[in-house]
Predict the structure.
Amino acid sequence: MLLKRLLLFSVLLMAFLSYSRAANEPGFISLFDGKTLTGWNLVNQHGGGYGVTNGILYCARGGGGNLFTEKEYANFIFRFDFRLEPGSNNGIGIRAPLEGDAAFQGMEIQVLDDTTKKYGPLQPEQLHGSIYGVAAAKTGAQKPLGEWNSQEIIVNGRQVKVVLNGKTILDADLSKITDPAILKKHPGLLRDRGYIGFLGHGDFVEFRNIRIKPLPETKTQ
């Protein structure tokens, strides 16, 4: 009985801390209640999909799919914590539609253990924090596997910025991406709004403290 009470207290505490963090950041709204997937839509689920335990949202081993917000967003600051294990692979879909491959029809910010040999040689645009296949992020800011990382994705007009553990690892101006081959392969680069989501690839990844601050829409994206 005591163990059950302690586990319940731990879950409630994690949920409270998540909401408290958002409340202490002006303009931020918590997107995760720490207990359920309320406010999220799971698209193309496979395997165990996603689950919640002890205030943590996780992508199941051998599972995944796209877990999207219920609302669309144009410009925003998206903050979250994540924790990886060896070989973990996920992604953050931004300005994505609900149909098609979010990495191409929208954009995907890589969430990845890019030190593993599991995926073979990686291109710079495939490393953690990169806009998949488009813009390469800097390395060296990620904490050791098993530790929590804090990440921020700022999308404002044509600018996409990624800050990992307080260090800017990506600052991309989408208007400077003019290669016809890239634009043809990644039509999502031209979208001005869409859903935000976790893009699971069958690997275990944990997330917490998920919150967002919508920014004013720009007249010309």
